[in-house]
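Reviewers asked in the last cycle whether our approach scales beyond single polypeptides. To address this, we selected a multi-component target totalling 723 residues and predicted its structure end to end. The input consisted of the following lines:
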Amino acid sequence: MREIGGMKVALQVTCLNDALFPGTGIAVVRLLHRLGVDVDFPEAQTCCGQPMVNTGYLDEAVPAVRAFVSAFEGYDAIVTPSGSCAGSARHQHALVAKRSGDPGLARVVAETSPRTYELSEFLVDVLGVTDVGAYFPHRVTYHPTCHSLRMLGVGDRPRRLLEQVRGLRLVDLPHADECCGFGGTFAVKNADTSIAMGADKAHHVRSTGAEVLVAGDNSCLMHIGGLLSRQRSGVRVLHLAEVLASQ
Amino acid sequence: MTATFVGMPAFPTAAREKLADSQLRGNLARATGTIRAKRAAAVAEVPEWESLRLAGAAVKDRALHDLDRQLVRLEASLTARGATVHWARDAADANAIVVDVARAHDADEVVKVKSMVTQEIGLNEALEAEGIAAWETDLAELIVQLGDDLPSHILVPAIHRNRAEIREIFDRRMADVGRPAPDGLTDDPAALAEAAREHLREKFLRSTMAVSGANFAVAETGTLVVVESEGNGRMCLTLPKVLVSVVGIEKVVPTWAELDPLLRLLPRSSTGERMNPYTSMWTGVIPGDGPQEVHVVLLDNGRTRALADEVGRQALRCIRCSACLNVCPVYERTGGHAYGSVYPGPIGAILNPLLRGTGDAQTDSLPYASTLCGACFEACPVRIDIPSVLVDLRAQVVDGHRGDAVPKPEAAAMSAVSWVFGRPRRLAAAERVSGLATRLARRLPGPAAAWTDARDLPTPPRESFRAWWRRTGGGG
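The resulting structure, written as structure tokens, was:
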């Protein structure tokens, strides 16, 4: 295993990936192993708390944030295959800790928050790699998810990683920066608007002629992919980690 | 205007109807797309844009943190220059003041400069109830007024209309309220503008009283500022002998010099122009030049309530540029009417609950009318962190129902989810059950059916990640 400054690295798989998209978590583990990182999965983890926070249920998010810090306290880097969950840990955990009125929780959150990295940030900034040795011979388009783009500011890191994948042909997605309309509980509370936005995103994806739509968040992909599948479009969706783990 | 926002349904219901209007969707996509591109180009010309945003936010914060003193200073400056200052706690107060001034001058009509605040307080309707006609003179406001319609955008209130619809409105309605549209009016934009100019000109020349808002009010000098594009504002501010300006108390800027970043930020963010065509500034009464009687109504109407909100008070920095509307993917699809207020879009989704308080179904639906994508925060020239305010207002909505005898289904669900996420063993058990359930059902029950109505569910995995890790130790 590659020594990355003796760092203890943990995977925060996210509740959605744990339950519905385990392939993404498995891909992160295999990818990191290949890059020489010994990654741990602390089983005490549950959810980052974002579904509750973003719906206005701050008290209800406290147990999830407690589970998060008890699972990840003591790790040097917490890697998550989700811009949204990384954003929640970095920008919302302090809010939940404040609401809990527990200064102890606030102290631990101040340690875990800045150590949480979205996958592309960890690969590019911490490991310093853009060529991860992947092979994926397909025509691909990439959707930058809103929280990775605007909450975290991952910039072109995911694209730089994809550009180094052998066999992969990356085609530009029109109106790429525009939200797909998922928005967590928005997808159900404002289903009509969510679907109108998603339908436009699906239209842009189809216009590229790509076989595969890639993004860094399975929540957004579940929404766009659900529409593409209902349309029998023949376009499949894949998490960035799965493309990068392919050989 | 006979249309009203009063009694509008909550956002999801109002949005459903608007989303089905393909004409509206087309009009909005074209218009917001054009204005987005213009703004992006105008902003890209300014290398120091980010520091300008910081400077703009700082000016507004300085004024807001010191609002009580700045307002008294503004009043003193205005009074010293011959203006009469009135204080209005709410819409009724402000409307009564304007009606009184009109009556004192036997005015049965007023010309109006485009103003958000007078729409907020329903001034036109209040004047109409007293037999005083209020003529909107901004082209888009004229279209809205003649069409018995409601504004759907802060800057471009008739953005939901295309030129064919505008031609029809002018042709049908102008004759009812003044000079008729010319025979054979076409939908050529220049012809439509000419028809409006001819129609409005006689109102400008006839009216003895004008009503305006203000983009900024300088406390140091007592100067009011109106920024506009068409020159109609300049006509209203200079021709009539009486001028009444209704100004929200958050419009105060401490000093003349501090207008600088704001006047640079506003046109580029708003119309995508380097500079707006008309910037009118007036300070009280100048004998023999312009209006000889100047009134300023300083309006609260919920602004002190918003100021008391620790997270939400930043919304009072808003300079009404509309950049957040133009970049909002929700607004682009639903249009402004779905928000049920003269303040639509992302800023409306926070400003309305902040001004009115949460607690009714329509207002409470507004903070949820967003995916929290963050495009609004990125575009805002005074750096209002709209997503954070939305999340805080959602918490206020939820907290407002914590005492309910029967919790809403959503609240019960969130409690259950919270319990599950409190312990990993509970989550693992829930995953086993839900995995089985989703394999059996391709259509979700209850409110979750809103997902499967248009979207397929992912194929559920045979085992969770957690189970895989336990089985393989990460090496499988």
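The longest helix of chain A spans residues 191-207. We regard this as preliminary and will revisit it once experimental data from Aim 1 are available.
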